[in-house]
């Protein structure tokens, strides 16, 4: 019996340790056969945990990093990666192999997850590239309650018994997310400078990055905003007459506050709105107070700030920088208050009106350019194209006035600018529906588009002027969609609205060509123009596309697909019965995609959908998730009884088309799919206010942090889904054109892609080899350059030629590079291999022939000048074919007949290949000799090729004599014949040392070569005369063993090649 004890300084600590032992260790011991194995396992585990805890303490204290250095040395020795593979962190853990745990060390590097174990005399090494991971999740097995499961294409691996599993999982998730974004998502890669320097990633950087992304998502700030500090503090909240505990976030251009109690109170203070930041006197009631004053005559009091002096100092520096870069312009046209800032907003106890939220800077210059500048629409379209509703004007106005009164009361207590206190009370007001007269202004404040608007005076007008009149694919798409944008609204049955929509969409496409224009942007922009001025609508569109719905409006709409995947998980969690009935939730996801892309604007009556947009601008994507769940719950019965996807779509369409807004002052404007609801009997109507209230009450508990975590988890799946789609489409195109088995073709694709990826891991980007580009056609997304091709050729080609293999690979690459862009696709690579493995003999010889004439063989080919030790072979030997009975026949007659037969059979439709010169023929022979090396029939093959080569030299000479004017002297021919080599000599080629050849010898070679040529037909006919050569080229070749070896050796070959490059070249002395 093995004793296991828990010890500690206190009873609480002992209980904590014992709980860990119970959860992670005791259940595992039953898998071992004897006590010795149990003791060995437990001791190893405990020692590893002690070592890990010690090293983590050292890392926290930032003292001597000796432990990390020791781990780094072991990591490098065990896995032999290039130096560029940087270790991020490491942990002690167990890797499960079936029911048996293997105690060892988990190493997390910038591109790979690696595990090493040496247990009970057995060594285990695992290397999993992050880019291969399709699913990363926390799960449990029969022995342990909490494990980390990693799923790749073919395997699942479980890791457990971590000292701090939460930390490990978070780091693993971040590394997988960062690596997949860096390698598989160009659109995000180009926008995120941090992804472009993977060698700088550390554990601390990952934690900072996660915090930064949460900060930007929580406050919906620009992607470029960088978080500088997070400080615990308390903020004076006058509406509750107390200090609210929370955290202060400071960044490049913002000071933000979030209460610890979710939704209690949030504040966003753009530094351009801040007038001063002051330290106040420290007292027992107000420890370390700081007062932040803003332009709307409000002040925010923060207390209990640690390290107050340095915090205030850094804030003042950034404040000064912001005001220097974006000076605040004052609206001197205001009659009420000549000193009022552009964000005209009086004190909290003063007038309750919104000021004019448009920039008035550079008025004089704008007036002087009015004639040549495009005229922008000066007001929201709904104020010009207001419709009269079915309700009486008095009732309509009374409801609107009640809402306005409630909002004005709220402004008095909580503030009216972007710096307002955001509490649960304002969320309830938003859910009731924003008054039409305030809607555009509040959208600007909630999204903080008002800060962008104020920071960029004249920017939109300049964009419009620059983009007007330019015609391209994007502008054609915009023109095509202009009249499909809210066609039922009078504002867009008029050239005024259409022109404003055209200007906003074209200007945005000009501002952000990476997004350009995507369908659904027209519908969203139309609604923004109804409630906001033209320039304001432009900045609202910027906020939605670049901050609030990240990665939604790009080539692959990755962001929308990620959120669809998140939505599926939320359905399973909140509506399990519906999820169980709808076996394939992807059908629901496809239906709901337009909900997310258009914020319900395209599938709900407009007067109802704008209330959804109200909630979206206040709460972000969370509002769309919860409303989607509320819609599904309301239709759960109908969906469960539906027999197919079409019927489910009908159920949802009818429901959504009958959502009304009782408080809307305008008439009902139908949705784009109203034709679905041509009912014979009245369909029950749902009030949008009730639906939104239900969504908050039943599904409003999702926090920003939970949603961001789910997005991270599902982004891995979505990106890998795209990769799988690319792979299947490439294989679908290639499979019918080759004879390689589908499973082998799939292995080849994985090797091809991995070769590309390894260059991304460890090499500086080269102009020839671009990054993976998902916007290209499927077959062109992964392409490799000559160096990568050479590695693959060495791994999987059956034509291995020793040291000559690399040269043959380079020639093959030049042959396949049809468009001469120095890159080849998978299809070309596989087609070539297919000939090598499965081609007929004549196809193989033809390929070899083409590899030894231009463009494959060039004048500068690094092996094409290697000379013969002696002239190639005798042309004077009497050549005869041996017959089975020992008789011999004259070769000359046979040869003439063979050439005649080949000429008759030649396919006239096929383009004739150019004839081969003697220099090219020498290289062709050299390749054949190299291919036969180490073959079991090596000697027979050498004799056969010597015979064939002599024969072909005679053929070439015959052609040379017939076409030559006698410039080649007979003496030269005699010298050639006198220096013949015996056919059984293994090597006819000297080392590549051309410098030692006498000058006269080189001259002689040039003279002899002259017009000496042989054709493909000559070579093929000659080779067919030797059975051993026919057997060599027709013997079956096994690609599976090559693929297995390639998977094992691909990394080591790449590592060897990189280490060879990093070392100075070794010069070998000639012996």
Automatic annotation (TrEMBL):
Record-linked CDD domains: PH-GRAM1_TBC1D8, PH-GRAM2_TBC1D8
One GO biological process term: system process
Signal peptide: none
Domain of life: Eukaryota
Purpose: May act as a GTPase-activating protein for Rab family protein(s).
Extent of Low complexity compositional bias: 960-971
Protein name: TBC1 domain family member 8
Keywords, comma-separated and alphabetical: Coiled coil, GTPase activation, Repeat
Pfam hit, one: RabGAP-TBC
InterPro entries the record matches: EF-hand-dom_pair, GRAM, PH-like_dom_sf, Rab-GAP-TBC_dom, Rab-GAP_TBC_sf, TBC1D8_PH-GRAM1, TBC1D8_PH-GRAM2
Statement: the UniProt record of this protein carries the keyword Repeat: yes
Ranges for domain Rab-GAP TBC: 433-620
GO molecular-function terms, A-Z: GTPase activator activity
Region named Disordered: 960-995
Alphabetical list of PANTHER family matching this protein: PROTEIN VASCULAR ASSOCIATED DEATH 1, CHLOROPLASTIC (PTHR47666), TBC1 DOMAIN FAMILY MEMBER 8 ISOFORM X1 (PTHR47666:SF2)
Coiled-coil region: 888-919
């Amino acid at each position: 019996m093995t004793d296991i004890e828990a010890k500690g300084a206190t009873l609480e600590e002992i209980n904590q340790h014992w709980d860990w032992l119970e959860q992670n260790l005791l259940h595992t011991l039953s898998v071992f056969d004897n006590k010795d194995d149990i003791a060995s396992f437990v001791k190893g585990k405990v020692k590893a945990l002690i070592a890990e805890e010690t090293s983590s303490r050292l890392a926290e204290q930032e003292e001597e990093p000796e432990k990390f250095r020791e781990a780094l040395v072991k990591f490098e020795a065990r896995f032999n990666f290039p130096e560029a593979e940087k270790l991020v962190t490491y942990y002690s853990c167990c890797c499960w192999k079936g029911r048996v745990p293997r105690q060892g060390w988990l190493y997390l590097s910038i591109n790979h997850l690696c595990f090493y174990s040496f247990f009970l005399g057995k060594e285990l090494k695992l290397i999993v590239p992050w880019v291969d991971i399709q699913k990363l999740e926390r799960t449990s097995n029969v022995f342990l309650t909490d494990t980390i499961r990693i799923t790749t294409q073919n395997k699942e691996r479980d890791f457990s018994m971590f000292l701090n599993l939460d930390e490990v999982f978070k780091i693993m998730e971040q590394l997988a997310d960062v690596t997949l974004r860096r390698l598989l998502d160009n659109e995000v890669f180009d926008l995120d400078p941090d992804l472009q320097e993977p060698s700088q990633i550390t554990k601390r950087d990952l934690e900072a990055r996660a915090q930064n992304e949460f900060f930007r998502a929580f406050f919906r700030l620009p992607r470029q905003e960088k978080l500088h500090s997070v400080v615990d503090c308390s903020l004076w909240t006058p509406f509750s007459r107390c200090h609210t505990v929370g955290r202060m976030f400071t960044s490049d251009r913002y000071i933000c506050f979030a209460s610890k109690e979710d939704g209690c109170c949030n504040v966003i203070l753009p530094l351009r709105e801040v007038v001063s930041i002051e330290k106040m006197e420290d007292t027992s009631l107000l420890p370390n107070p700081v007062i932040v004053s803003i332009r709307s005559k409000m002040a925010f009091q923060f207390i209990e700030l640690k390290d107050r002096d340095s915090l205030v100092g850094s804030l003042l520096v950034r404040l000064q920088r912001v005001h220097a870069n974006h000076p605040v312009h004052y609206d001197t046209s205001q009659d009420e208050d000549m000193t009022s800032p552009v964000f005209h907003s009086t004190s909290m106890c003063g007038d309750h009106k919104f000021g004019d939220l448009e920039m008035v800077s550079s008025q004089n210059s704008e007036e002087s350019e009015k004639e040549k500048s495009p005229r922008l629409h000066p007001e929201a379209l709904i104020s010009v194209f207001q419709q009269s509703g079915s309700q009486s004007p008095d009732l309509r106005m009374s409801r609107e006035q009640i809402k306005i009164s409630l909002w004005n009361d709220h402004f008095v207590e909580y503030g009216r600018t972007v710096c307002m206190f955001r509490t649960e009370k304002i969320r309830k007001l938003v859910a009731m529906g924003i008054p039409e007269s305030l809607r555009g202004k509040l959208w600007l404040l909630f999204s903080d588009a008002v800060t962008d608007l104020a920071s960029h005076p004249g920017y939109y007008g300049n964009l419009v002027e620059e983009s007007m009149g330019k015609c391209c694919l994007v502008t054609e798409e915009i023109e095509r969609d202009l009249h499909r944008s809210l066609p039922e609204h009078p504002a867009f049955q008029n050239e005024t609205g259409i022109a404003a929509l055209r200007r906003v969409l074209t200007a945005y496409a000009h501002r952000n060509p990476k997004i350009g224009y995507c369908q659904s942007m027209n519908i969203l922009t139309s609604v923004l123009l109804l409630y906001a001025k033209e320039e304001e609508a432009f900045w609202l569109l910027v906020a939605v596309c670049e901050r609030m719905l990240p990665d939604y409006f790009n080539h692959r709409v990755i962001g929308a697909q990620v959120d669809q995947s998140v939505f599926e998980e939320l359905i399973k969690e909140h509506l399990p019965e519906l999820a169980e009935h709808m076996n394939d939730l992807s059908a629901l996801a496809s239906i709901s995609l337009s909900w997310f892309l258009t914020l319900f604007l395209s599938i709900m009556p407009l007067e109802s959908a704008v209330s959804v947009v109200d909630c979206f601008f206040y709460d972000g994507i969370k509002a769309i998730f919860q409303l989607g769940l509320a819609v599904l719950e309301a239709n759960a019965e109908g969906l469960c009884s539906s027999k197919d996807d079409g019927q489910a779509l009908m159920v949802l369409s009818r429901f959504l088309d009958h959502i009304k807004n009782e408080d809307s002052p305008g008439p009902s404007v139908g949705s784009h799919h109203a034709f679905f609801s041509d009912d014979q009997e009245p369909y029950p109507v749902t009030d949008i206010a009730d639906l939104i209230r239900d969504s908050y009450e039943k599904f409003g508990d999702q926090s920003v942090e939970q949603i961001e975590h789910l997005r991270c988890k599902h982004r891995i799946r979505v990106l890998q889904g795209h990769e799988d789609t690319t792979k299947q489409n490439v294989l679908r195109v290639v499979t019918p054109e080759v004879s390689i088995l589908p499973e082998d073709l799939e292995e080849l694709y994985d090797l091809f892609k991995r070769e590309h990826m390894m260059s991304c891991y460890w090499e500086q980007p080269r102009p020839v080899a671009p990054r993976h580009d998902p916007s290209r056609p499927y077959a062109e997304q992964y392409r490799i350059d000559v160096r990568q091709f050479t590695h693959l050729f060495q791994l999987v080609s059956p034509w291995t030629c020793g040291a000559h293999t690399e040269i043959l690979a380079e020639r093959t690459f030049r042959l396949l590079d049809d468009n001469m862009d120095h890159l080849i696709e998978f299809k070309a690579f596989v087609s070539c291999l297919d000939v090598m493995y499965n081609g007929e003999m004549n196809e193989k010889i033809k390929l070899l022939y083409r590899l030894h004439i231009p463009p494959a063989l060039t004048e500068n080919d690094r092996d094409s000048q290697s000379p013969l030790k002696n002239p190639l072979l005798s042309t004077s030997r009497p050549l005869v074919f041996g017959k089975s009975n020992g008789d011999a026949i004259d070769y000359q007659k046979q040869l003439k007949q063979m050439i005649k037969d080949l000429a008759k059979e030649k396919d006239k439709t096929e383009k004739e290949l150019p004839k081969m010169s003697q220099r090219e023929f020498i290289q062709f022979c050299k390749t054949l000799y190299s291919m036969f090396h180490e073959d079991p029939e090596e000697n027979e093959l050498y004799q056969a090729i010597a015979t064939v080569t002599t024969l072909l030299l005679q053929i070439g000479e015959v052609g040379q004599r017939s076409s030559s004017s006698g410039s080649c002297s007979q003496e030269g021919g005699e010298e050639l014949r006198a220096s013949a080599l015996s056919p059984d000599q293994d090597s006819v080629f000297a080392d590549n040392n051309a410098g030692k050849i006498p000058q006269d010898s080189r001259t002689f070679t040039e003279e002899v070569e002259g017009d000496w040529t042989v054709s493909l037909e000559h070579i093929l006919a000659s080779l067919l005369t030797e059975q051993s050569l026919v057997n060599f080229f027709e013997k079956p070749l096994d690609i599976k063993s090559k693929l297995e070896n390639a998977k094992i050796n691909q990394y080591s070959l790449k590592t060897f090649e990189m280490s060879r490059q990093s070392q100075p070249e070794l010069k070998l002395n000639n012996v």
